[in-house]
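lol forgot to send this yesterday, sorry. struct tokens for the thing we talked abt
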């Protein structure tokens, strides 16, 4: 069940100008099957930006243990959240690109993935062949990390170096938008809206994708930017310090990752008698396996077993305010 590449704009004819915007997300399997998940994980986990262990150690572990054991398990998780149009990450990224196309009618807007399809390198080449001279790349990672944003930068740099006409191309990339006023307001408004429907007395937990602590120790600004984003959103909501906390989810492998983990934080909240928790994941631009399966299903079930009620606040996805915020962010780069 391949996801259809969304490299066509939502309107029937592509805007004629020479500027294009590429919104890039991580990538996701093409089907909720062990084979498709294995292909995806193999490409992803071969990226040295993601796993920097020496290859003679990592490749045997990856090929003989992680891929064969993890792929069927993760395929079942994808199957539990699969949508009509494909993986949620692909569907929502495509929808967001379309919303951005509507917000920026003078610019060609396309979506791309760092791993899998539509492959970023191919999308960039397609735009070059179309005659787009200025290409703005927007990685859908509000907080910068070498494991995500810099990896997108690697593809862009390789493309620029290999282009037959490099001087005819102007490539620009957004590094992060963790404190962008429009984005902070959009996240805060989505939380407010959710709480209006459900009552606003729950503890607010900001859950970000984790990262090996080693990355931060060698200079990755990710943790600092997550903390700044959470504080800015909490301030926009007028929350007291005691009304919110921050944690990290989706740990992978055995080394130490950023703490506290979302799982431990929920356990500690339950032990303190906090039974109503709203979880928001502002590190994820769109919903995906990590938010829908891990948080909204697994962690919510675990919290319910402790007598609590976890309400998951969806990512911004293709909300018009999200598209407007991102359009405002890239506006100055579009020329
Ligand atoms: C060493 C491994 C990993 C690092 C480092 C890492 C960083 C990182 N990832 C995201 C965003 C996403 N990750 C997603 C899935 C995912 N992540 C890892 C591993 C690392 N991530 C794996 C193995 C997987 C696949 C699922 C699994 O096997 O458990 C996703 C969702 C993809 C989807 O299809 O839905 C996103 C999004 C960030 C932001 C980040 C560093 C800050
Ligand atoms: Fe390998
Ligand atoms: Fe990840």
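and heres what i got for the seq, position by position
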């Amino acid at each position: 069940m391949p996801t259809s590449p969304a490299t066509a704009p939502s309107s029937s004819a592509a805007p004629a100008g020479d500027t294009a915007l590429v919104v890039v997300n991580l990538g996701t399997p093409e089907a909720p099957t062990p084979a498709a998940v294995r292909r995806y994980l193999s490409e992803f986990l071969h990226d040295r930006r993601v796993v920097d262990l020496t290859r003679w150690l990592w490749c045997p572990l990856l090929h003989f243990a992680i891929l064969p054991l993890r792929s069927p398990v993760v395929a079942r998780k994808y199957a539990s959240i699969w949508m009509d149009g494909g993986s949620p990450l692909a569907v929502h990224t495509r929808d967001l690109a379309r919303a951005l196309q509507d917000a920026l009618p003078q610019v060609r807007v396309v979506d791309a993935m760092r791993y899998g399809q539509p492959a970023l390198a191919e999308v960039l080449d397609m735009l070059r062949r179309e005659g787009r001279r200025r290409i703005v790349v927007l990685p859908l990672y509000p907080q910068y990390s070498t494991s995500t944003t810099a990896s997108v930068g690697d593809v862009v740099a390789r493309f620029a170096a290999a282009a037959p006409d490099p001087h005819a191309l102007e490539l620009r990339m957004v590094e992060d938008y963790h404190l962008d006023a429009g984005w902070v307001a959009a996240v805060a408004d989505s939380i407010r809206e959710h709480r209006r429907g459900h009552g606003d007395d729950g503890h607010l937990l900001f859950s970000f994708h984790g990262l090996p602590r080693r990355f931060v120790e060698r200079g990755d600004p990710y943790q600092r930017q997550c903390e700044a984003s959470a504080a800015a959103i909490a301030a926009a909501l007028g929350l007291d310090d005691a009304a919110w906390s921050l944690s990290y989810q989706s740990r992978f492998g055995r080394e130490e990752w950023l703490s506290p983990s979302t799982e431990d934080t929920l356990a500690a909240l339950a032990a303190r008698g906090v039974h109503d928790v709203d979880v928001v994941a502002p590190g994820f631009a769109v919903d995906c396996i990590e938010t829908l399966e891990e948080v909204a299903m697994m962690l919510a079930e675990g919290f319910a077993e402790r007598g609590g009620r976890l309400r998951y606040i969806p990512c911004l996805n293709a909300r018009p305010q999200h598209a407007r915020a991102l359009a405002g962010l890239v506006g100055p780069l579009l020329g």
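Residues 181-313 form a domain with the Rossmann fold fold (CATH 3.40.50.1400). anyway ping me if u want another try
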